């Protein structure tokens, strides 16, 4: 039996719409498009993510291990797109002990996303509860990709 939460059926359709609007140059809210090479095929896989801005750094959080999380762990880089602007970035997973302060920002910066954490993880929507969920919620930081790693090679964890 899987411990993976079940996402709403309509989410795939909404994600495709957000991606399409973004590719038309329409970036809105906290939404960015994160594209990461598949760990088996190498084909770029895209998903909308809400980017948090904390102390001049950019982060993304998720409530459980998704395919993009597995891909990010394996390849360590991706493309972050918002509207017409696109950049290659290193995707660096934070250790559990560093996740709390970033997770506590999620309810403040992405209040519309809190309900998914509440429903899928049975997590109250307050910052302290999010910080306490650090062991089960992956958090990644986006760093500028080193110039010598921009050719699509696997990036060592920085």
Indicate the topology.
Elements (H helix, E strand, L loop, with lengths): L10 H13 L7 E7 L6 E7 L1 E3 L2 E5 L5 H9 L1 E6 L2 E9 L2 H14 L4 H8 L5 H6 L6 E6 L14
Antiparallel strand pairs: 1-2, 1-5, 3-4, 4-7, 5-6, 6-7
CATH architectural name: Roll
- What is the fourth-level CATH superfamily? Electron Transport, Fmn-binding Protein, Chain A
Number of domains: 1
Strand order of the largest sheet: 2-1-5-6-7-4-3
Structure description:
The structure is a single chain. The chain is 32% helix and 27% strand. The chain is globular and about 40 Å long. The mean pLDDT is 87. Strand 5 and strand 6 (85-93) form a beta hairpin. Strands 2-1-5-6-7-4-3 form a seven-stranded antiparallel sheet, sandwiched between helices. The chain contains five helices and seven strands. The chain is an alpha+beta fold. The chain has helices at 11-23, 67-75, 96-109, 114-121, 127-132, and strands spanning 31-37, 44-50, 52-54, 57-61, 77-82, 85-93, 139-144. It has a single domain (11-149), classed as Pnp Oxidase, Chain A (Roll), CATH 2.30.110.10.
Short description:
With 158 residues, the protein is of the alpha+beta class. It has helices spanning 11-23, 67-75, 96-109, 114-121, 127-132; strands spanning 31-37, 44-50, 52-54, 57-61, 77-82, 85-93, 139-144. It is built from 5 helices and 7 strands; from the N terminus they run H-E-E-E-E-H-E-E-H-H-H-E.
Features:
transmembrane; 158 residues; transmembrane helix; 5 helices; alpha+beta; globular; Pnp Oxidase, Chain A
